[in-house]
Amino acid sequence: MGPVTGTRPSGDARPAEEEPASPDAPSGPKQARSRVTRRHLLEAAVACLAEQGWAGSTVAVVAERAGVSRGAAQYHFPTREDLFTAAVAYVSEERSAALRDLFQAGPAARPVVVEAIVDLYTGALFRAALQLWVAASNEEQLRPQVTELEARVGRETHRIAVELLGADESVPGVRETVQGLLDMARGLGLANVLTDDTARRARVVAQWSRILDAALG
Q1: What is the 3-state secondary structure (H, E, C) of 79-97?
Q2: Fewer CB near the terminus (10 Å): N or C of the chain?
Q3: What's the CA gap between 84 and 198, in Å, rounded?
């Protein structure tokens, strides 16, 4: 990710949005630069978590990858915990939005929906989230934020799954069936962390599609 536009007089190519604005300066461009900087930091934090794990993902490392100063990073996220929980939340929300966008017309063929849901639990986002969960299990300061994040993302993903599958949760057992799909998808994502699980994942997706057809009607 390239550096954000806007440099300091010294020639240090770092965004200057953390510097105090003059009273007469227009706020629009400054706010836009700030949003760009924040997004770059969040994306860089997720990439660092996925590639280097919690121990190797310091604020300084993330700031360098994002092309911003450490001061800019701390301006947006005062603590390391704030940065990484916000990063995983941001990308989770982006992926959920992308999933909804794939099915704007409403419920689709169940194999397609199941495959799309499973895709949410593979790749860099899941690896980053996994690193965050492991860190939270040992970091008392981080655990409440990650627990809250996981609960919120889980509720949103469940809601989207119900909508896309056309599931009626007033029918006994349907809610548990949908949650079972999400738990299965998370398990497939975990298996994919160490090895390429594409072939087995395709067979499991096909079988779960048949299970859902039988359970949901």
Answers
A1: CHHHHHHHHHHHHHHHHHH
A2: C
A3: 28
Q: Which is it for the CA torsion 123, 126, 129, 130, positive or negative? A: negative
Task: Choose between 64 and 47: higher pLDDT.
Answer: 64
**Whole-number Å distance between alpha carbons of 141 and 49:** 18
Q: How many CA within 13 A on the CB side of residue 85? A: 23
**How far apart are the C-alpha atoms of 94 and 121, rounded to whole Å?**
13
Q: In the structure, what pLDDT confidence band is assigned to residue 13 with cuts at 50, 70 and 90?
A: very low
Whole-structure pTM value? 0.69
76-121: per-residue pLDDT in tens? 999 988 998 888 788 778 777 777 777 776 667 888 889 888 888 8
3-state SS class at 179:
helix
From first CA to last CA, the distance across the chain in angstroms is: 46
- Angle between helix 124-138 and helix 143-165 axes, rounded to 10 deg: 140
Q: Which amino acid is at 176?
A: E
With beta carbons less than 8 A apart as the criterion, state whether 97 and 159 touch: no
Q: Name the DSSP letter for residue 22.
A: P
For 131-138, which contacts have Cβ atoms below 8 Å and span 24 or more sequence positions? Answer: 131/49, 131/50, 131/53, 131/54, 131/57, 132/49, 132/54, 132/84, 132/85, 132/88, 134/54, 135/54, 135/84
For residue 144, give the H/E element and its range: helix 143-165
Distance CA 87, CA 164 (A): 26
